[in-house]
Amino acid sequence: MNATPRSERAAQDGRGAKPAGRFRRMLDRLASSQQDIESAELLQDTQATGCTPICDCGDRQIVRVTGTLRTVTLRPRAGVPALEAEMFDGTAPLDVVWLGRRSIAGIEPGRRLIASGRISMSHGRRVLFNPKYELRPLGQE
Q1: Which residue has the higher pLDDT, 77 or 65?
Q2: What letter would DSSP give residue 75?
Q3: Which residues contact 93 (CB under 8 A, 6 or more apart)?
Q4: Could you say which of 60, 67, 77, 93 would form a disulfide bridge with 87 (CB–CB 3.0 to 4.6 Å)?
């Protein structure tokens, strides 16, 4: 058994990190964790919709991102209700916050959406306040 990770061995052998054949891709998919597979699918969806990957979003940048809502919570900010959701697109998490809202129809864990607005940084995390958003159809999940 070799202690070197498979991707490093492949790079050393000159084959590259990408598997060559259909059988090899199937074996890699079976060996991958469910979380890795979901992350790859989310990243593929981000590229297909023409959105910016969350990991590439910088502070004060106007962006259009897509992903799946992992959590949705009601958390007051400065005495005002705020609906907070964590969005994930396969690259990085993004906190999406709607100020003054206790709930929004369709905003629930597991739902995919496209959001646009200006990114800000708060406590080392990317945050999108009061974004324009578009709920993705449930059939695409």
Answers
A1: 65
A2: -
A3: 54, 70, 86, 87, 125, 126
A4: 67
